[in-house]
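#struct-help
A.M.: can someone run this one for me? Single chain, 183 residues.
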Amino acid sequence: MLDFTLPAAEFARDLIGARLLVGGVGGTIVETEAYDDQDPASHSFKGPGRRNASMFGPVGRAYVYRSHGLHWCLNLVCGPSAGQAVLIRALAPEAGIEAMRGRRGLDAMEALCSGPGKLCQALGVTAELDGAAVSEPPFSLTPAAGPRAVVAGPRIGISRGIETPWRFGLAGSPFLSRRFPGA
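D.P.: on it. Structure tokens below:
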């Protein structure tokens, strides 16, 4: 059982190897990033607002936002206190491959879900899922089946808090958005 009350960095590590489906489409989570309200890179850093309200709601909910006005991003709200979430950066496609290919307009398996925007496009995640419980349809989230080799490093695509090593990935996965330094 996944523990949504863990601090974001611990929960982000625990999500590696978990299976995430949205409407029956998805696969194994291979890359995550953690954020909390003390982190200058986090949407919750300046407190609650209309855009980030889901981050301050109950744990176990989706926080979906549009990045740079272009791509949807899916986060899972977690933590012992409000304002914590984990960005789902990449997954290994396993279920609903044809739906993913159709939504993404390409065939290459490694490129279907290798980044948060790509992942949301492939899974059909939009703002309609913001605030939805991930324990209920259309979501299905299953913990990792066993031990897995997890690597950690600095987050990417941010301008503040870059040095915080809260990006986690499945060692050796070909489905990562970007390789980990030294891995």
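A.M.: thanks! The chain has a mean pLDDT of 89.
D.P.: also worth noting: The first helix runs from residue 8 to 15.
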